[in-house]
Request: fold
Amino acid sequence: MNWIVGFIILIIKLGVVLVGLLLLAAYLVLVERKFLARLQIRYGPNRAGKFGLLQPFADTIKMLTKEDIVPAEADRVIFLLAPAVVAIEALLIFAVVPFGASITLLGKKIPMVITDLNVGLLYVFALASLGVYGVALGGWASNSKYSLLGGIRGAAQMISYELSLGLSLVPIVMLARSFSLVDIVRAQADYPFILVQPISFIIFLISAVAETKRIPFDLPEAENELGAGYHTEYSGMRFGLFFLGEYVNLQVLGALVAVFFLGGWHGPLLPPVVWFLLKVLAVAVAMIWVRGTLPRLRYDQLMHLGWKVLVPVALLNIVVTGAFLLI
Amino acid sequence: MTIYAAIFYVLAGVILVSTGLAISRRNLVHAIVYLIISFFGSAMLYYLFGAPLLAALEIIIYAGAIMVLFLFIIMMLRVDPATLRRPSLRHWLPAIVLGLIYVVIAILVVTQDPGSQSILETALAKPRVFGQFLFQKYWLSVEIVSFLLFIALVGALYLGKAFARDTGRGKEVEK
Reply:
């Protein structure tokens, strides 16, 4: 009996998280378009519904009803599977993200996380490092020069920045003394880690933006030199899956920054889940703002920043943190 | 047969089939995709055996980093599978000999060692316990391996510098 109840709770949690993520992804697209438009003194989408609020549904219906084209010379199976890799990888990361402290419902304790893995942080890394396959294989399978270049750039960029991403989180693990995301949030009950690890925070933020391939790191899809890079040849809902992956990744970025540096669900007055969502949205909006402000990096600048600035600074930061913890 | 045993045999089958396909495919990108699936299967096996840390590291390092590098290089080279020559007997011979030796040793280990007959208890290695065990008991091996890797790194740096000096392309290579 207990087993069945646990199973039902798990299914409900999965359903709520999935629907929430998809809805939020759809509306983040709208927020991004509206906010960018305002930064560029335009109106943005305002025809579908009041203030363009129905625009995400119009977009979804458009993409679902469009023809799904596979180029004649493409590697069919890999071409069809690559977008799914990107979307699935982004969605699966949320399995270990804690949304709040556990609540008690009808005498049963329900943790506000789908599963609290003791290697949660490494699980996040494992999935994040697999996201590159969707980009690289999608670009290769399209059999187009623009796509191939986008895929190669994506692979090079993502392996370079994965290193500094991982190194920037080592001090967090040292402070929290655990890989579990729930324990990391609990360790920040008194103060968020951004106060003691500001350098880690900056390195993590820059590397994570590079991992999500957003401006100023959007070389894999640079529209004015590569068309749309790795997804040039994609149409209909397969393009939609790449798009969905990108906006779920934006939420992943927000959630990870909130969990590792901003204290997760901790906060005064408001309920924990609300605090968590507020932090995620604040990071996402800041990222959109960055997109509206900064120009794209050149390829050599990208490599220089990753290997010669972020990695050494992150290593130094680990040594300094270790020394402070020993004293 | 318990459910764990069933999962084990399914995983073992996936690993064997995908590794076989990775060896036999002519298209290099397909071979890499099968190899990634094989690494995934191994990671699942580690998880099944109660070592989630090893499972995560297997995916991060092998599937997520080393295979990406392979893929990156193959995409840069654009090898046409039709132009690749089939390996001749001379190429096959060392592989076959080594493989046979390995098979004989494996059979001997399974049949001779009494420990291989008993069924192991499922245990869970927590990351903290695993780390303490590794660095307290096997610290010397860890140090030797990391020293070897460091030497390899220095060697790669030296080769890169030598290449830059010989071709006079120092500036480009440095980038």
